[in-house]
From TrEMBL:
Pfam families: MFS_1. Keywords: Membrane, Transmembrane, Transmembrane helix. PANTHER family: COMD, MAJOR FACILITATOR SUPERFAMILY. It comes from the Bacteria. It is a multi-pass membrane protein. The chain crosses the membrane at residues 61-78, 90-113, 119-140, 152-172, 178-198, 219-242, 262-281, 293-311, 317-342, 363-382, 388-412. Its main location: membrane. Residues 25-417 form the Major facilitator superfamily (MFS) profile domain. InterPro entries: MFS, MFS_dom, MFS_trans_sf, Tet-R_TetA/multi-R_MdtG-like. This is Major facilitator superfamily (MFS) profile domain-containing protein. PROSITE patterns: MFS (PS50850). It is found in: Cell membrane. It comes from Microlunatus aurantiacus. The lineage of its organism: Bacteria, Bacillati, Actinomycetota, Actinomycetes, Propionibacteriales. The keyword Cytoplasm does not apply.
Length: 431
């Protein structure tokens, strides 16, 4: 898309939002993404009710684990399939899997059927994030993607806040099966909108023989920018989300807050995340400057984790709130900008594969960080260490990991963001 300019006395300036004709398409993509994210948090909140009704305490861990394993395992595949066949059929297939899994889950009569439903949902949800990010790349120049990527971050924040509340309400009111049934109207609307609005096929797709190794495109790691950003994403995923996943536990077990009060304090992190994503989008869109933002974000997040570690077992809650807000700002300033950098590093015909492989390495980092933090916390609690004292060493270690991520990002070469108009946007303009 050519730079959209409005002239004034001082010359011209960039518009930071996409053209209005793209809003329905972007809304449909965000609806599908919100559906996939809510599937995780709603069911997690309703899980105690589910296992009680289905008498499945022994299989409790597999309800979420099966979903996560399926979603993570298919990440690289979706990117390559989207590059090969176009984003529309692959996104529609992912939405279809989400809806089929929702129907199976809603009708489940036992834990085995429910876990099967979660696998089907995971196979669909695994593609939504990378496919949405790649679809945005199909219709917007690299320089103009940051505001839309910040909307992706807003979807995550909305799901993080609304998912547990909605899942708990449904489980205690209409019934836990509605955590699955509720997906059908949202998914159906997203499916219809996708059929109508998504470009049929990237107009600049490269005609070449497709090879099996294209499904897992490890050759992308020969591109220096991609490799460094992907490694940094893995490291930061371990540090940031290894901590975020256990912050509610820290607030409840460590500081003795009630679940509701802990949830309210977690809103400080969500607020910081919103500020970080909005500021980074403004900076990238107006100036094209992008490389320093993830470095600053990683340092800010490391400082926040170090502050949490230094506060000790009896911290002042306002200081904890400040640390959570700064952590959110750091995540918001870094996370989506890294996706833009990855997409800018490769040719347009491989943007889906690059986005997916980057997402896969991030998820590996998240799993490693969560496993480390969970193991340290479990070991500390098993040794009868006071709960408030267990979390400090974990936060300190993860702060050091975040610093490593910042150091890796310092080695990323500078490359200006492209302002070239994608071919799929030209297709939409002709409709």
């Amino acid at each position: 898309m050519p730079e959209r300019r409005s002239r004034g006395a001082s010359g011209s300036r960039r518009r930071l939002l996409p053209e209005p004709r793209l809003y329905p398409l972007l809304a449909a993509l965000m609806a599908g993404l919100l559906l996939s994210e809510l599937d995780q948090s709603m069911v997690a909140a309703a899980l105690p009710t589910i296992v009680d009704e289905l008498d499945g305490v022994g299989d409790l861990m597999w309800v979420n684990t099966a979903y996560l394993l399926a979603a993570t395992g298919v990440l690289p595949l979706y990117g390559a399939l989207g590059d090969r066949w176009g984003r529309r059929p692959v996104i529609l297939a992912a939405l279809g899997l989400l809806m089929v899994g929702s129907v199976v889950g809603a009708l489940a009569s036992g834990m085995g059927v429910l876990i099967t439903a979660r696998v089907i949902q995971g196979l669909g949800a695994g593609g939504m994030l990378v496919l949405v990010q790649a679809a945005v790349a199909d219709v917007l120049p690299v320089r103009d993607r940051a505001p839309v990527m910040s909307a992706v971050g807003a979807v995550f924040a909305a799901a993080a806040v609304a998912g547990p509340l909605l899942g708990g309400w449904l489980a205690g009111g209409p019934g836990w099966r509605w955590t699955f049934w509720i997906n059908l109207p949202v998914g159906g609307l997203a499916l219809l909108a996708g059929c109508w609005l998504l470009p049929k096929r990237p107009a600049d797709a490269v005609a070449r023989r497709w090879r099996a190794r294209d499904l897992v495109p490890l050759g992308l790691f020969r591109v220096r920018i991609f490799a460094l950003v992907a490694v940094a994403g893995l490291v930061l995923g371990a540090a940031l989300f290894g901590a975020v996943g256990y912050l509610p536990t820290y607030l409840q077990l460590g500081l003795g807050l009630s679940p509701v009060t802990a949830g309210l304090w977690m809103l400080t992190l969500v607020g910081g995340l919103a500020i970080g994503t909005l500021v980074s989008a403004q900076v990238v869109g107006r100036t094209g400057v992008h490389r320093p933002l993830p470095i600053i974000g990683a340092v800010a997040a490391a400082a926040a984790l170090a502050l949490l570690a230094a506060l000790g077992p009896t911290p002042a809650l306002p200081l904890v709130g400040v640390a959570l807000a700064v952590l959110g700002v750091g995540i918001g300033g870094a996370w989506e900008v890294l996706v833009v950098m990855v997409q800018n590093a490769v040719e347009s015909s491989r943007v889906g594969a690059a986005t997916a492989m980057n997402g896969f390495t991030r998820e590996v980092g998240v799993v490693l960080g969560s496993a480390y933090a969970g193991g340290m916390i479990t070991t500390g609690l098993a040794d009868d260490t006071p709960a408030a004292a267990v979390f400090g060493p974990v936060f300190a270690a993860l702060a050091l990991v975040a610093v490593v991520g910042a150091v890796v990002l310092l080695a990323v070469p500078r490359k200006p963001l492209s302002t070239a108009r994608p071919a799929a946007d030209r297709e939409l303009a002709r409709r």
